[in-house]
Amino acid sequence: MNTELRSTDTNSSNDSKGNALGFEGNDFMYVVIGIVAAIGVFLLLYAVFAATIFTSAFLSAACAVGPTAWVVIFKRNRPDGYAEDFFDNLFNPEGFTYAPGNQPAFPFHHDHE
Question: What is the pTM of this model?
Answer without folding.
Answer: 0.63
